[in-house]
Design goal:
single chain; two-stranded antiparallel sheet; 5 strands
Amino acid sequence: MPAWEHLVIYLTADAEQEMQFLQHKWPGTQFPKYAAQALMPKLDMLGAQGWELVSCEPVIVGMNGDIQIGNASMNHWTALYLCIFKRPRQQE
Protein backbone atom coordinates (compact mmCIF):
# COMPACT_ATOMS: atom_id res chain seq x y z
CA MET A 1 0.00 0.00 0.00
CA PRO A 2 1.49 3.40 -0.95
CA ALA A 3 2.47 5.88 1.72
CA TRP A 4 1.78 9.56 1.08
CA GLU A 5 3.18 12.86 2.26
CA HIS A 6 0.99 15.94 2.19
CA LEU A 7 1.40 19.66 1.68
CA VAL A 8 -1.22 22.14 2.91
CA ILE A 9 -0.64 25.74 1.77
CA TYR A 10 -2.43 28.96 0.94
CA LEU A 11 -1.99 30.33 -2.56
CA THR A 12 -3.03 33.83 -3.63
CA ALA A 13 -4.41 34.53 -7.09
CA ASP A 14 -2.67 37.74 -8.18
CA ALA A 15 -2.99 38.41 -11.91
CA GLU A 16 -0.77 41.50 -11.73
CA GLN A 17 2.10 39.38 -10.39
CA GLU A 18 1.53 36.68 -13.03
CA MET A 19 0.68 38.96 -15.97
CA GLN A 20 3.64 37.78 -18.08
CA PHE A 21 2.49 34.16 -17.75
CA LEU A 22 -1.14 35.05 -18.44
CA GLN A 23 -0.34 37.13 -21.52
CA HIS A 24 1.90 34.38 -22.88
CA LYS A 25 -0.84 31.80 -22.37
CA TRP A 26 -3.75 34.01 -23.55
CA PRO A 27 -2.37 36.90 -25.65
CA GLY A 28 -4.48 40.03 -25.59
CA THR A 29 -6.84 38.81 -22.87
CA GLN A 30 -7.67 41.23 -20.07
CA PHE A 31 -7.71 39.58 -16.65
CA PRO A 32 -9.23 40.93 -13.45
CA LYS A 33 -6.76 41.57 -10.65
CA TYR A 34 -7.55 38.33 -8.79
CA ALA A 35 -8.21 35.96 -11.71
CA ALA A 36 -7.98 32.33 -10.57
CA GLN A 37 -5.84 31.54 -13.65
CA ALA A 38 -3.02 33.39 -11.86
CA LEU A 39 -2.65 30.30 -9.64
CA MET A 40 -1.42 28.22 -12.58
CA PRO A 41 2.34 28.99 -12.40
CA LYS A 42 2.44 28.06 -8.71
CA LEU A 43 0.37 24.91 -9.32
CA ASP A 44 2.64 23.96 -12.24
CA MET A 45 5.75 24.47 -10.10
CA LEU A 46 4.38 22.21 -7.37
CA GLY A 47 3.29 19.64 -9.95
CA ALA A 48 6.85 19.58 -11.33
CA GLN A 49 8.00 18.70 -7.80
CA GLY A 50 5.69 15.68 -7.82
CA TRP A 51 2.80 17.20 -5.86
CA GLU A 52 -0.72 16.26 -6.98
CA LEU A 53 -3.49 18.74 -6.18
CA VAL A 54 -6.16 17.03 -4.09
CA SER A 55 -8.29 20.01 -3.10
CA CYS A 56 -8.39 23.76 -3.74
CA GLU A 57 -11.00 25.98 -2.07
CA PRO A 58 -11.32 29.75 -1.73
CA VAL A 59 -11.10 30.70 1.94
CA ILE A 60 -11.02 33.60 4.35
CA VAL A 61 -8.47 33.10 7.13
CA GLY A 62 -9.07 34.58 10.56
CA MET A 63 -6.50 36.09 12.91
CA ASN A 64 -6.12 32.75 14.71
CA GLY A 65 -5.56 30.77 11.52
CA ASP A 66 -9.17 29.65 11.54
CA ILE A 67 -10.88 29.34 8.18
CA GLN A 68 -14.25 30.76 7.27
CA ILE A 69 -15.99 28.79 4.58
CA GLY A 70 -18.87 29.91 2.38
CA ASN A 71 -21.97 31.28 3.99
CA ALA A 72 -24.93 32.06 1.73
CA SER A 73 -26.09 34.90 3.97
CA MET A 74 -22.79 36.81 3.73
CA ASN A 75 -20.97 38.34 0.77
CA HIS A 76 -17.26 37.72 1.09
CA TRP A 77 -14.61 38.03 -1.57
CA THR A 78 -11.20 36.40 -1.45
CA ALA A 79 -8.19 35.74 -3.64
CA LEU A 80 -6.78 33.24 -1.14
CA TYR A 81 -7.08 29.51 -1.76
CA LEU A 82 -6.43 26.65 0.62
CA CYS A 83 -4.68 23.99 -1.44
CA ILE A 84 -3.96 20.43 -0.36
CA PHE A 85 -1.46 18.31 -2.27
CA LYS A 86 -0.15 14.77 -1.96
CA ARG A 87 2.74 12.79 -3.41
CA PRO A 88 4.20 9.36 -2.76
CA ARG A 89 6.44 9.37 0.29
CA GLN A 90 10.09 8.95 -0.57
CA GLN A 91 11.75 5.78 0.70
CA GLU A 92 14.04 6.60 3.64
